Structures are given as structure tokens and as C-alpha cells.
Amino acid sequence: MTTYTRKTFDEVMIQNYVPADFIPVKGKGSRVWDQQGREYIDFSGGIAVNALGHCPEDIVAVLRRQGETLWHSSNWFTSEPTLALASELVAHTFAERVMFANSGAEANEAALKLARRYAVDHFGYQKSKVISFKQSFHGRTLFTVSVGGQPKYSDGFGPKPGDILHVEFNNLDTVKAVIDDHTCAVIVEPIQGESGVIPAEPEFLQGLRELCDQYSALLIFDEVQTGVGRTGYLYAYQHYGVTPDILTSAKALANGFPISAMLTTDKIAASFKPGVHGTTFGGNPLACAVGAKVVETIARPEFLQGVQQRSVLFKQALRELNGQFGLFCDIRGEGLLIGAELIEKYRGQASHFVKAAAAQGVMILQAGPNVLRFTPALNISEQDIRCGIERLALALAEF
């Protein structure tokens, strides 16, 4: 039997990633084991994806049952699991219509295309401007990476899609300076995840809503990372009390099975007439069956309350850790999307902390070069939180 190692990655894979030195082979709950049988506490959650942990039994049961029934039938047909998941999302959100795709980038691509098509249908081709925010992240397609506010990801691929502006996050005046009757959409993350776990101020999102209404522009919330319970609410817009026109969801939607969704209203959805946009795998029965069970589970009020309780515990543990080591200048975020920003002395070294944590048996993330990011399973046990923090303390002691 062939043995694959980390060296194999360097030999056969395109080198656009730099994975950890160890290879996980098994996961259960919030614990992971590598090829050597070493155990890790998982505070990364597959980058906010494994909301119910690794291999939860009730989700595995759904996967097996649907896997023996119907995997894929294409969008020439619909399926019962597709309709079940769409119905769950409509029942628990502002949305009246849902479209499924396979990734957050595809959901955002669909949202941006829908916004421009809606503008063309109702106002004409001149209404095409998209306003986004510096340091935002919306995906890796050419359109979404251009809308994202990080040139390091969008430069070097030739001409970019036009009529896209980037202004300062949490600064409403910069939006007021550029929004006009030619603006078709404003796209925003309620919490900027990849750039450092930076929550939007409530007044900022409310101001965006009012400006979009004033200029007949659509407000798009990118909830790829914040959605499906991550902030202690099913979607973060419910915490802020600001309702978008279009919302995108992915990551945790099927607990690791690839799927995404774009949610919107009847009126806006009407601009996606048959043939205007599509996807081969989006909404396939296997992904939707898993997603329907995930949403049903996480949408329960008692589950979401548990996320908020764990958030308090996790942040307090990090503050106690910081009292011991004094490494963080800020600990922020909502629910179990938490960022700990390193003090000036250790700026640029987040990746070193991530490696040191792995060496002590705890998996964490970074959000940019200066912020440690924690996105554990939403149902992680108090015991696993304590154990992971103890291991993290050993890693931080090295610094």
C-alpha cells in the first residue's frame, strides 16, 4: 500500500498552498488525529466550516442515507433535499428565494451578477457601480477577487472587471462620497474575517442600508464566514437588525460538504430568468440533504444560545491567557468567530504562533499576519475548550 506524506504534496500538487507539516487522517467532534496517531484539539473548524465538529453521527447518517438514494440529477430536475434546504432557509431568514452553488466565491459571483442584472432590468446599463471595502474578501473568481479589497489577491491576472470602488470599512463618510445613482450594489461582510476578524459597527451597517435605499442600490451581505450560527445567530444580520437585499452563505452550510447559497427576495430574484445564470453541481441532492439537517440543527434557539455561552467562555479563557503572557492588544469577534491581535512586538508573526500551537496539539488559524483566529465547532465541549487553551498556553510560553 502506498504511503503518502507531506513530501508527496510538494511533488504532485500545485504549490498555491503551504499546508501544515502533519496530515490529519481522522476527526471526531473537536478532536483530530494525524498519520502518527497524534491528537489535536481543533480550534480551526476547517476555517469556520465544521460547525458541528468532525463526523457528527446524525449528519453522517443523513449522508449515508442520501448516498444510497440519489447523489446528483442536474438542474434539469429538482429534488426533495434541494427543496427541503431551500424551505429551511426561507423559513428562518428574510429570504423568499434561494439559489444554490458550491462555494462562497460562486455565491458571491451570483449575488454580484444578480445585482447588476437587476439594475439593468429596472434602471438601465448605466447603473453598474459596485462599492466594496478595503481589506474585504469575497472569493477567488476574477470578479469576486476584484470586488474584494486586497490587491495582493487580485493583481497579476490581467485586466480586472470595471466599475468597482473600494472605500474604508466602518467609515460611512467614505461611502457617502462615492455612492450615487449609478451604484447598483454595496457588498459588505458583517465581520471582516480574512483581514483580522473586524466587526462592523451597527451604525455603519444601518447607514449602508439607508444609503442603498436612498440611491436604489442593493445591499449584499457576504455571510460566507459569519453565517449558519457562527456569531451566535443563524445569520449575523439578525444580530445587527439590518436586513440586506441579498445574502450569501457557504462554509458551515453543510458542515464541510461543498455547498453555498444565495438568498434574496421575490422581486430581486425575478431578474434571474431561466438561462441567465447556472451551475452544474449547485443544489445537488447529496449536499442539500446534509445542509438541511445542519440548518435544522443550528437554527434551534437553544443551540444558538449555546454558541453565545461558549463565546463568553472562550473569550474569557483567552483574556486569562493574555493576563499571563501579555501577547494580545485586542480580543474581538462575535460568537465563535474570534480574533486575538498580537502586540506590536510580535506583529507579522501570526504564522509562527499557528505552528507552535500545532506542535503542542492544538489547531488554530491566522487572519492576516497579525491576528490569531479561532473558529472551533459551535458545539465544542467546555472540556475541549479548556484542554485546547492549556495546550495553547504551552505554545505561547515559547514566545
Structural features, described:
The protein is an alpha/beta fold and 399 residues long. It folds into two domains: 6-56 and 301-397, Aspartate Aminotransferase, domain 1 (Alpha-Beta Complex); 70-298, Type I PLP-dependent aspartate aminotransferase-like (Major domain) (Aspartate Aminotransferase, domain 2). The protein is built from 15 helices and 17 strands. The protein has helices spanning 6-12, 45-48, 57-67, 80-92, 104-122, 142-147, 151-154, 172-176, 202-214, 236-240, 266-269, 285-298, 301-325, 350-359, 382-397, and strands at 24-28, 31-34, 39-42, 97-101, 129-133, 164-167, 183-188, 191-192, 198-199, 218-222, 246-249, 260-264, 328-334, 337-342, 362-363, 365-366, 371-374. The chain has a seven-stranded mixed β-sheet, with helices on both faces. A four-stranded mixed β-sheet has the order 1-2-3-15. Helix 4 runs parallel beside helix 12. The chain is globular, with a radius of gyration of 21 Å. The protein starts with 5 loop residues before the first helix and ends with a helix. The model has no long low-confidence stretch (mean pLDDT 97).
